[in-house]
Design a protein that fits this description.
This protein folds into four domains: 121 residues; 179 residues, Sandwich (Chondroitinase Ac, Chain A, domain 3), CATH 2.60.220; 94 residues, Immunoglobulins (Immunoglobulin-like); 59 residues. The chain has one helix and 43 strands. It is an all-beta fold and 509 residues long. Strands 1, 3, 5, 6, 8, 9, 10, 11, 13, 14, 16, 17, 19 and 20 form a 14-stranded parallel β-sheet that branches.
């Protein structure tokens, strides 16, 4: 029969005579109302249990070798200057009411179980799976991240377990993201990882699930995920935007918040030499599309990601409006900001540049590059003499949808002489259009030179074109009233003989 020890307080402190006091808990249970350790060492052997009916604080130099069970009802404070537990294989069970893991040092638990009645929270970076096989078991409790990072060091999909509990991320970039960082290492195809996010206020379960379809190669591989909602009643809503996203406009440059659900996901995959491919499940709340200033038609929602430079075209996916879940297929780019937008007003096509340059002072070569395209039917090249009134020059087919860099060009073979202006008009399949910035081009004009002799004359006259270019020029003749009476195309250095008797007196070449 195990003995049960009731202790009102345990206080461990380094003394002048001993480096540390050592408490060893063997095959019996010990109960303490408070536990303070200031440089002490605690060993809990397999099968032993230390129950703390209150809070615990571990000061500088403290260590715990836990191969048994520690359960406590108060806050857990680690000021030891280390991860406290090393790689010991035991379990810590937080089974009180509202409890917090805090202190000045990161705590690395092996098995961490959440029980009791209240929500649990972390106030500092916290790790589970300390020996590589430990589990975070949420059971029926909520774990609030409070803008901190929770590291899962168990690389297997079983590193997190739950019944109805979940992890509350939900903090925006102003407060700081609440992040789950899963150190997966090499990922095996057909494995499924679930990050069980949820909202502690509404009780909604909002998991992010990765169904991996190919291997991920990288012993240091990890996946970081955060998520947060925004205020649906704000004008515009979807604020604050994720870090690195300056605006939320559609491809025509108009604010697109009303067509974008009020939730963002921020992901990053690192440490892989070969990234895995996965099908990703994202879950949102009903209110995040249907309330406030949103004008979303839920079945039209499509997933899009932003890589801190450009938006991707809408990705392949399917929506379940009953469970509020978006399935995104064949994803192998994770370092992105993710959201869901109405496909009638997707986030913008990205035009990297549009340029126009003279070629041999005869033609204008227009070229442009797109980083991505969404529902892009065709491009129209337009020109103008004054930069205000534009006319059609030519048309180039678009790629439809693309998330790779594409280059286009079109040559205007009959440009205006002097300065003219060019722009690109992009047209979607639904007829929506948007214009590029306007660029100016100068075609240097070469005035033709004519020699006319004899002048004046009443008989025949000879006209010689002395144009320095090899191209032909056109000769126009007007009478004294300004009427056009004659024209002829003259080649360079050609001599043209004209009989003036066919014209009335007084005319001008």
């Amino acid at each position: 029969m195990k003995l049960l020890h009731f202790i009102t307080k345990i206080y461990l402190q380094k003394s002048s005579c001993f480096l540390a006091m050592l408490f060893i808990f063997n095959s019996y249970n010990s109960n303490a109302q408070l536990l303070f350790s200031n440089g002490g060492s605690i060993t809990i052997n397999a099968g032993a249990q230390l129950s703390i009916k209150g809070a615990s604080t571990f000061g500088a130099g403290s260590t715990i070798t836990n191969n048994g069970l520690i359960d406590q009802t108060g806050n857990f404070t680690n000021n030891s200057g280390s991860n406290l537990f090393g790689v010991s294989a035991g379990t810590v069970d937080l089974n009180g009411g509202i409890q917090q893991i805090n202190g000045t040092s990161t705590t690395t638990f092996n098995n961490l179980e959440l029980n009791g009645t209240g929500n649990k929270s972390i106030a500092i970076l916290t790790e589970t799976g300390g020996n590589g096989s430990g589990i975070l078991d949420l059971n029926n409790r909520i774990l609030e991240l409070n803008s901190n990072t929770l590291v899962i060091k168990n690389p297997l999909p079983t590193g997190i377990s739950r019944t109805t509990g979940f992890i509350h991320s939900e903090t925006d970039p102003v407060a700081g993201y609440g992040t789950v960082s899963w150190l997966t290492g090499n990922i095996v195809a057909a494995s499924n990882y679930q990050i069980p996010f949820g909202n502690a206020v509404t009780g909604d379960f909002l998991p992010v699930i990765f169904n991996f379809t190919t291997n991920g190669i990288g012993i240091a591989g990890k996946i970081d995920v955060s998520t947060y909602p925004t205020n649906t009643l704000a004008i515009p809503n979807n604020r604050p935007l994720p870090t690195g996203l300056p605006v939320l406009t559609n491809f025509t440059g108009v604010e697109n918040a009303a067509n974008t659900i009020d939730r963002f996901w921020v992901m990053e995959a690192s440490g892989f030499s070969t990234l895995p491919t996965s099908n990703i499940h994202l879950t949102y709340r009903e209110s995040e599309w249907s309330s406030g200033t949103n004008t979303i038609i839920e079945p039209t929602l499509v997933p899009q990601r932003h890589d801190l430079s450009v938006w991707s075209p809408p990705l392949a996916g399917s929506i379940n409006t009953t469970t509020n879940t978006m399935l995104i297929n064949a994803v192998n780019v994770y370092n992105s900001i993710w959201t869901l937008a109405g496909n009638a007003s997707p986030l913008p096509v990205e035009l990297i540049n549009f340029d126009a340059n003279p070629v041999d002072n005869k033609e204008v070569l227009c070229s442009w590059v797109t980083a991505s395209e969404i529902n892009n039917d065709f491009f129209t090249l337009e020109r103008s003499r004054n930069g205000i009134n534009f006319e059609h020059v030519g048309t180039v087919d678009g790629a439809g949808n693309s998330n790779v860099t594409l280059s286009y060009s079109f040559t205007d073979k009959n440009p205006y002489p002097g300065i003219s202006y060019y722009r690109l008009r992009q047209t979607d399949f639904d007829g929506e259009t948007s214009n590029s910035p306007i660029v100016a081009v100068r075609i240097e004009t070469i005035e033709p030179v004519f020699t006319i002799f004899p002048n004046p004359t009443t008989g025949d006259v000879y006209v010689i074109s002395e144009n320095t270019s090899s191209s032909a020029v056109r000769l126009y003749i007007y009478d004294s009233a300004g009427r056009h009476v004659y024209e002829k195309l003259i080649q360079s250095n050609e001599v043209v003989q004209m009989n003036l008797h066919a014209f009335a007196r007084g005319f001008t070449l």
